[in-house]
Amino acid sequence: MKRAKDQGVVNIFISIPLNFLRDYSCPSGDELEWSRTRAAIIPITLVGSFFFLNGNLDPSSDDFGFYVKMTLLSLIPGFILAFLIKFKTASSNPPSFLMTISAFLCFMMSIMWIQFTSACIIDMLQLLGWVTRLPKSLFGLTILAWGNSLGDMSADMAMTRKGFGEMAITGTMAGPIFNILVG
C-alpha cells in the first residue's frame, strides 16, 4: 500500500507541472472551447514553454543564460497581452483575429509537444538498450518490429472483443505472411 501511495505522490509531482505546461502553452484553436482566462495566461507562458520544449532551457547548455533572459523579457509583452485579452474580450465568444492567431500557435506548440514527447521516448529506449546491453542493431530491429506489429495487434484485439476470435487468430497468422510475401 505504501508503494502505491509513493507512486501516486511521484505521479502528482510529475503530472501537475507537465499538465499545467501543456494546458497553458497550447492555445485552443476551437471557438467552442474558448476560455478567456486560459487565453490570457497563454501569452505569459508561451515563450518559456517553447524554449523548454525545444530544450533551450537546459542549464548545462552554453546559451542557457540567453534563453532565460529572452524568457524573462517576453514576460513584459506577455503580461500586457494577457491584460488586454482578459479585460477587452468577451467571455462568451472570442474575437476572430485572436482565434486565427491561436490556431497557428496551437499548431506550432503541438509540434513542439510531439518533438518533446518523441525525445523523451527515444531517451527511454536508449536507457533500456543500455540496461539490457543489447547491440544497437538488434535493439533497433526489435523496436521496429514492435512498432510494425502495433497496428495489427490493436485490430486483432478489436476483432476478439467483438466476438470474432477465429478471425483475429487468422489475422495474426495471415497478416505477417501477407506482408512477407507481397510486401
Question: Can you describe this structure?
Answer:
The protein is an all-alpha fold and 183 residues long. It folds into two domains: 2-133, no CATH class; 135-183, no CATH class. 80% of the residues lie in helices and 0% in strands. It contains six helices and no strands. Helix 2 runs antiparallel to helix 3 (64-88) and helix 5 (136-161) runs antiparallel to helix 6. The longest helix is centred in the middle third of the chain and has 37 residues, at 96-132. The model has no long low-confidence stretch (mean pLDDT 85).
Outline of the structure:
The chain is mainly α and 183 residues long. It has 6 helices and no strands.
